[in-house]
Amino acid sequence: MNRIALITGASRGLGRSTALALASRGVDIIGTYHSHRTEADATRAEITGLGRKAIMLPLDAGQAATFGAFAAEVTAALATTFGRPSFDYLVNNAGMGAHAPFAETTEAQFDSLMNVHLKGVFFLTQALLPHLADGGRIVNISSGLARFTFPGYSAYGAMKGAIEVLTRYLARELGARGIAVNVVAPGAIATDFGGGRVRDDKALNAFVASVTALGRVGVPEDIGPAVAALLGDDNRWITGQRIEISGGMFV
Fold first, then answer.
1. In angstroms, what CA-CA distances link 98 with 23, 95, 148, 248?
2. Is position 130 within any domain?
3. What is the CATH classification number for the domain harbouring 71?
4. What confidence category does residue 195 fall into, taking pLDDT thresholds of 50, 70 and 90?
5. Domain that includes residue 189, residue range
6. pLDDT at 176 over 90
């Protein structure tokens, strides 16, 4: 029986890299996208080009009221496209950024980050849990900013710190079903996340490289294959752990 992964935010960046890495390992993909349908279709085409089944479903990860309907969509897709009642891997990757000094962070910015990065992960996982197979895996995406600090990311870093705590609770509570739950914390990655600052700001890019042991900024292909490996059977005894993939940033 083929394994199936559900990856939020799979159309671009880290989610796309994870989807392609899993597909290359023989895993079928249910991906979500928010507003970038063209990129989602392109990712789906790449996955099918690797010989795997793939669908892309729209999802606003910050709207918890829609998660019941989304779970019903997943149920229908599992039956019609994959011929199964459950999936095996959940990767909570969808995210958005906001850069503002602590003293200038608005309640609206805080709530937007919380709705996607904390409340969204909590309640989407809850809604999908009945459809996650026993013995499955969950990987939540955190950030190096939960360990080290950059001015302007206090709200974002706080949400990611909360996700790391939530991961340990999920590992404890879902262990009886044989479900392993871990959190991956990327360092600074050159994507369009947060307006593409790490990718496009030459001064910032050079600074990140200077404080990273391996001497460069990360790219999505540094992260996706690592997440795929963590989901594999060889790592079945790892749970409740925070795994930073940052090239040694601020070690």
1. 31, 10, 17, 24
2. yes
3. 3.40.50.720
4. low
5. 4-245
6. yes
The residues annotated as belonging to the active site are 156
Number of domains in the chain: 1
Say what the pLDDT of residue 191 is.
79
**Owner of token pair 């023989």:** 26
Given a contact cutoff of 8 angstroms between Cβ atoms, the answer to whether 12 and 32 are in contact is no
- The per-residue pLDDT for range 220-244, each reduced to its tens digit, is 999 999 999 999 999 999 999 999 9
Q: Which tokens in the block code for residue 205? A: 């890019």
In a domain, 229, yes or no: yes
Per the structure block, which two tokens stand in for 227? Answer: 């997440």
Q: Is residue 250 part of a domain?
A: no
| Cβ atoms 123, 64 nearer than 8 A | yes
C-alpha count within 13 angstroms, C-beta hemisphere, residue 7: 33
3-state secondary structure of 131: helix
241: left (phi over 0), alpha (psi -120 to 50) or beta: beta
